[in-house]
Amino acid sequence: MLLLAAAFLVAFVLLLYMVSPLISPKPLALPGAHVVVTGGSSGIGKCIAIECYKQGAFITLVARNEDKLLQAKKEIEKHSINDKQVVLCISVDVSQDYSQVENVIKQAQEKLGPVDMLVNCAGMSLAGKFEDLEVSTFERLMSVNYLGSVYPSRAVITTMKERRVGRIVFVSSQAGQLGLFGFTAYSSSKFAIRGLAEALQMEVKPYNVYVTVAYPPDTDTPGFAEENKTKPLETRLISETTSVCKPEQVAKQIVKDAIQGNFNSSIGSDGYMLSSLTCGMAPVTSITEGLQQVVTMGLFRTIALFYLGSFDSIVRRCMVQRAKSEIADKTA
Fold it and tell me: Which pathway, per its entry (predicted)?
């Protein structure tokens, strides 16, 4: 009887694996597609633009610094696969004025056609203890990281629904899955992106438009170097427990998941574990993905108890060291 139940379970799982591709989104063809990348002048955004360009896409780069945009344009154009490809640069702050963002998206569509894929990669990070951060820091990060994703998405969504094709990518962070010491302002702005993405996916799925949320780990970018300047010691030590990824590696995975229409995009074993642990009620693209989350959740939760416990011990050690230092200063 037990063997019969096991055989039935195995057969059921195999059937789900076979059926899964039939109900999954049809992959987006990048050759000739129009891809808009915000924050595309450096870091992950620039690497995503390069990866899409290598696959034959037309690219619109959006960022604030015009000089960096032009420099990125030259670098991206080295990877063309045909003479028809174009890289368009538009200088604008996507977090400040929706009407301005809407206008530049219209300009891009007039020149390169409707947007097939939007990658919201504009963002910034500032770390610090909650009581040490200025209130303006919370406002600024929410504006750049959250509204900087809302405005471009709002500008392209109507056309995507009308055409019944499209991909919208939100680049969050592993700090958007797990709140960490020193990231009270940054994590909250990145968590907000997930809520936006989940609600938006419910609205646009009937129109064959799919949303992807990417959760990259620490990545070797100019933004990460800037973030390190403000990190408290505890945050820096926690960050050092994992390796720093290359932006090219992160970009390839994000583009791959976006093309497939996957809702979650994670990088590496840590990223996979976090995505499985924090999936909650998030949409799944395939039955296979759902089964993997169910099967691995218990194991990963056990591992996470020890994993997060190491973070707590780092914070406690830093507190003890600071207390000893303060006592030594007073008695000196």
Answer: Lipid metabolism; sphingolipid metabolism; Sphingolipid metabolism
* 215 included as an active-site residue: no
Domain of residue 268 covers 29-306
Tokens 């995009």 belong to residue: 265
CATH of the domain at 223: 3.40.50.720
Residue 214 host element (H or E): strand 209-215
Told to judge if 190 belongs to the known catalytic residues of this protein, a careful annotator would answer yes
The whole model's pTM is what? Answer: 0.84
CB 191 within 8 A of CB 90: no
Residue 320 lies in a domain: no
Q: 166 pairs with which residues across the strands?
A: 209
Residue 311 lies inside a defined structural domain of this protein: no
Residue 26 annotated in active site: no
Q: Which of 68, 73, 190, 231 is catalytic?
A: 190
At 11 the pLDDT is 54
Segments in the chain below pLDDT 70: 1-24, 279-282, 284-310, 312, 322-324, 326-332
Number of structural domains the chain divides into: 1
With respect to residue 14, please indicate whether it lies within any of the assigned structural domains.
Answer: no
The catalytic position among 146, 186, 210, 215 is 186
Q: Tell me the C-alpha distance between 236 and 158, whole Å.
A: 42
